[in-house]
Structures are given as C-alpha cells and as structure tokens.
Amino acid sequence: ELRRLIERMFQGAPFHYAPRFALGIEYKRALIDMSLERSELGRFMQTSLPRHIGVLSAFLDKFHIFDIVLDVSEVERDPSSPPVIAIVAPGIAKQSPAWKILAGVCGQFHWALITAPVGPAPASATAAAAPGTPTLPSGGMP
C-alpha cells in the first residue's frame, strides 16, 4: 500500500527502494549527522520509537530522498493503515513543492515529517562526487 501512496504523491517518480530493520535509538542517532531542519529534528527526538523499526529508504538514482519509518512491532497489520511513524526526507527541502505534498499526507495520517532545511540542497546531495556522477539541483527534489 505504501508504494501506491508514494507513486500517487510523486506521480510515478522512478524511485528505487532499500528496506531494512534498525534499532530505534540507533536510527535517531544517525539523524543527527543528516542535513535536516533543526526544529523538526528536535521535536522528533522527543518522540519515542519502538526498539525495532523498519526503514524503507527511497532513492532517485544514487540520491537518498526519504525514509519511511515503520513500527514493525505491531502484530496485527491493517494494510489500509500502514504503521508509519515518520517520513524523514533529507532530499526534500522544507517549503518545496515535494515538501507540500509530504506535509499534506503526513498531516492527514498524523505522521511526523522531518525534511532538509529551506535553501540549498543538503550537503549529501551536492557534495563533490566522483567524476561523471550527477548531483541534485539546488534545493534537492522539487
């Protein structure tokens, strides 16, 4: 169900996905090193995460656009209401068109949202890359 929601939100953008499991506390620690909007990150750090979480990372080419953080401790699953805790989007700048889409969906489902700050693309998207490696345009994903 999440894949269809993502495809509707981003109108068929050619994402590829990397699912993994993580410890909630370790995932939070890793967020500190990402280029994320600080006030959103601060609020999220106060949210308790389950011990074990699922993380579905979405990429465009080699660029990390967002993670969907899932509560995998739920025993009974309802496909129409996925156990999403948050969307962490280091590849989407706050106030961008993509942010507006995510903010609307997260608000509707009461999911937390953490994005890149307003302004230039996150360092991970614009850092010097190997010759011939593309970089995201300024501002991350539109």
- The residue ranges in which pLDDT falls below 50 over 5 or more consecutive positions are 122-139
Spatial sequence of strands, sheet with the most strands: 1-2-3-4-5
Mean pLDDT: 82
- Helical fraction equals 25-40%
Number of β-strand runs: 5
Can you lay out the helices and strands and say which pair or pack?
Elements: H1 2-9, E1 16-23, H2 24-31, H3 38-45, E2 52-60, E3 63-71, E4 84-93, H4 97-109, E5 112-116, H5 123-126
What's a concise summary of this model?
This protein is of the alpha+beta class and 142 residues long. 29% of the residues lie in helices and 29% in strands.
Protein described:
This protein is α+β, with helices and mostly antiparallel strands and 142 residues long. Helix content is 29%, strand content 29%. The chain contains five helices and five strands. The chain has helices at residues 2-9, 24-31, 38-45, 97-109, 123-126, and strands spanning 16-23, 52-60, 63-71, 84-93, 112-116. It has a five-stranded mixed beta sheet with strand order 1-2-3-4-5. The longest helix is centred in the last third of the chain and has 13 residues, at 97-109. The radius of gyration is 15 Å and the shape is globular. The two termini are 24 Å apart. The relative contact order is 0.18. Residues 122-139 have low confidence and may be disordered.
Please describe the structure with a list of short key phrases separated by commas or semicolons.
about 140 residues, 5-stranded mixed β-sheet, alpha+beta
